[in-house]
Batch of 2 targets.
Target 1
Amino acid sequence: MLPTRTHQSRTRRRALLAGVVTVATAALGIGLSTQFASAQQTTLRGAADALNKDIGVAVNYNLLQSSAQYRELVATEFNSLTAENAMKWDATEPSDGNYTFTQADAIVDFAEDNGQTVHGHTFVWHQQTPSWVQNLSASALQTAMVDHINTLANRYEGRVDSWDVVNEVVSDSNGAMRDSFWLQKLGEGYITTAFQTARAADPNADLYINDYSIEGQNAKSNKIYSIAQGLVNQGLLDGVGFQSHLILGQVPSDMEANLQRFVNLGLKVRITELDIRLQTPADANELAQQASDYARVANICKNLADCSGITVWGVRDGDSWVPGVFPGYGAPLLFNDDYSKKPAYTSVLNAWGGTVTNPTTTPGTTTPGTTTPPPTGSGCTATLSVQSPWNTGATYAGTVKANQNLSGWTVSWTWPGSERISNAWSIQGTLTGATVTGSNAAYNGTLASGQSTTFGFNITKPDGATASVPTVTCTPA
Ligand code: 9MR
């Protein structure tokens, strides 16, 4: 029998509400089911929300600071963020006891502003750990590790939903423990200590062990399995992160079965760092193969109720770590360098039940093929659509289209019933009352005539009535 979990897993709002969908559709019959089925998911985020899964992305702090297009895409397409580097030890505690959280805070703040969850990465790793840590004596190293975990877990308690507590602790050969400074100085017990510390510091966060090349069943994943078993027996582990830095055409054939055996331990599984590299330059056939590989991974996660989600390791191909480490390889992600969508984007969206309405739209650029003339006398036009309704809530998408050059916009509407916004992204203002007045976020206000941008929000509707689609007025700022 599985041991009783000693901690209350943080159940996110999204998870709770999506649970209601199933019950409500079953109880209320065809009306609601039809309504749910007709909701069209046109973004990865919408599709993931409807499945109650995370679609995450590794966020690069510099791009988040410097690029409005990057910010808009991250806010629109993803419901979960991981700091690609900003939460690692070298970024957060570069010298003993001197913590710097500017970058990590910016990413967590962005997630909160945009209604996104955060998967934290990572407390204990043999890379990107400063030399002052590596040079400590065994007892000082243990003290530093406990202090580091306590400091980060306490700082982000309630704001980071899950943590990669230890990263890459197993070696690439024979399933042995990685011969890192951690192992050499502290022995295997450092792993248990790290999890005990994290559990005590933030009892509600989900705790993961994370590694690469464990997607199929092999000596390395067998070792992770036995470590996981030991941690589960102590009530210290909630999930296993399968990084999934894959090579074109090489999604392991037994990946789903391998993940399932971890689920059978009572664990969540998560694809934590997905990218699928190929030899560059890519031709159309390779991009199609990549799309099919991505779809396979998306389907595996969809098939497993306990797969908490997929995080892709970067936004655009040019942002990826791959070419720097594997010369001649690259193009491993879902977006091109101009933010246009690759075939792999479409295949993931389709696998998770969504439909691409305009595959070539780039945030902040003109929609190709738009033929509808702008209404006269109005500087902008705004519409709302229900993305995924459930009994007592819904996720909406909003679109603002500029009919003239805009430096900002304000939209307004009044809810006819009990609908009230609970959280919103890419829009700010007076949002929570019966009358909503919202303006552009810092990054999506400047639109040339003909361009569109999007925003989104979740509502509650306690009375269980059908989610309404009010008429929206839009005025230039
Ligand atoms: O993508 C990260 C890259 O920017 C860093 O330079 C690199 C340093 O080691 O780490 C990369 O992310 C790694 C992640 O933290 C752990 N799994 C492997 C990832 C790719 O190397």
Note: Residues 44 and 77 are 5 Å apart (CA to CA).
Target 2
Amino acid sequence: MALIVHKYGGTSMGSTERIKNVAKRVAKWHDAGHQIVVVPSAMSGETNRLLGLAKEISAQPDPRELDMLASTGEQASVALLAMALQAIGKQAVSYAGWQVAIKTDSAHTKARIRSIDDTKVRQDLDAGKVVIITGFQGVDEHGNITTLGRGGSDTSAVAVAAALQAAECLIYTDVDGVYTTDPRVVSDARRLKTVTFEEMLEMASLGSKVLQIRSVEFAGNYKMPTRVLSSLTDPLMPLEEEAISGTLISFEEDTKMEQATITGIAFNRDETKITVLGVPDRPGIAYQILGAVADANIEVDMIIQNQSVDGKTDFTFTVPRGEYTKAMDVLNEKVKTHVGAASITGDAKVSKVSVVGVGMRSHVGIASQMFRTLSEEGINIQMISTSEIKISVLIDEKYMELAVRALHKAFGLESA
Ligand code: ADP
Ligand code: ASP
Ligand code: MG
């Protein structure tokens, strides 16, 4: 008997039929003698619908009220799933984040989990109940409901698994594992049986939304065995088969089965580029520009500073699309005259494409192969950034899918 956490995403919870299937699957695991905690997302489209309503009311809704609103999607899901389990004869109880409690900081719409109290959950599990806990939400020290950022139910699930010292966290979704790239963009992408924690962290941070990055961080910090698998298979398929399906995030370098140089291609449409032109090339200039942006709570990603010509230089960096206008305002109002910049320009139609793989450490020539492939497709590279296990380029968004397909092929990642 083991304690196992199941997480079901929006598509998996997308209709009452699908919720009944989730209940059947959960009941199968419970019948096998396991203690099961389920962390579901809102039904697909529901979070978008709620946030859309907020936008109809106000261009800049109060973040606290946004969290009050967005968290209701998950509250509906847990109650429906509890009813579905009860309808097939299982004892089940649902809890909102604050009832558990899942305590977070007060950063509304992007809160971080601080602690999880496992007392009540353990009592219910020991009493033979299936426990269902809302994904995506928590409560701050003042009793306000918070949410964890889009895709945050993954993080709720892994954090709950860590708090309960579960044997495994199973992330059920609408694909049957982690692929070499998004199978919706490259149809012959290949499923990975295992992916190292470091690679998964890079893929998630570079835009692969199959797992929210913070869930991967939790998995790493607590060495929580985490598996991504399909919720769309027959819910009554043999448990032994299901338990080894999908993709396992591995923590040991030498357990990695597939020793390819490149593991996958990630992409992110959520990028914009800003250039501050003609700034004096002197110490402190980067701090003056980026410090002002950071003070406005805007996350900066790629950064380059050009060589100076006649004592002047250009400074280019990227910010997420949602923060583009705010960043431009900050620069125009607080930075431009202060640093003596000639002008500030921006491009909101760029995307980032990255190749990821721990094998890069021991191979040379990956960057040149990547750049050659893009040049053969006539794709201009606007910015480059690298780490030990990834190379990212910023390109015009209209070439993003072409770049992903070409690189996937050039690195031989397709299924046989
Ligand atoms: P859920 O609602 O279950 O959380 P998401 O939509 O958040 O599901 O994440 C699953 C989706 O992630 C898939 O449908 C797929 O399009 C996308 N995805 C992006 N990159 C990858 C990848 N490398 N492997 C698998 N899926 C990926
Ligand atoms: N429902 C939330 C969202 O759509 C959280 C999640 O699905 O993980 O972002
Ligand atoms: Mg998700």
Note: The pocket of adenosine-5'-diphosphate (ligand 1) is lined by residues 9-12, 41, 151, 173-175, 178-179, 181-184, 208-210, 264 (CB under 6 Å).
